[in-house]
Amino acid sequence: MKIAVGISGASGAIYGIRLLEALKRQGVETHLVISAWGEYTIREETEWPLERVKALASHCHDPADMAAPISSGSYPLDAMVVCPCSMKTLAGIASGYSEDLIMRAADVCLKERRALILCTRETPLSRIHIENMLRATDAGAIIMPPMPAFYTKPASVDEIVEQSVNRLLDRLGLPADGLKRWKTEQERQPPR
Question: Which residue in 57, 135, 143, 153 has a CA-CA distance of 20 to 30 Å to 191?
Answer without folding.
Answer: 153
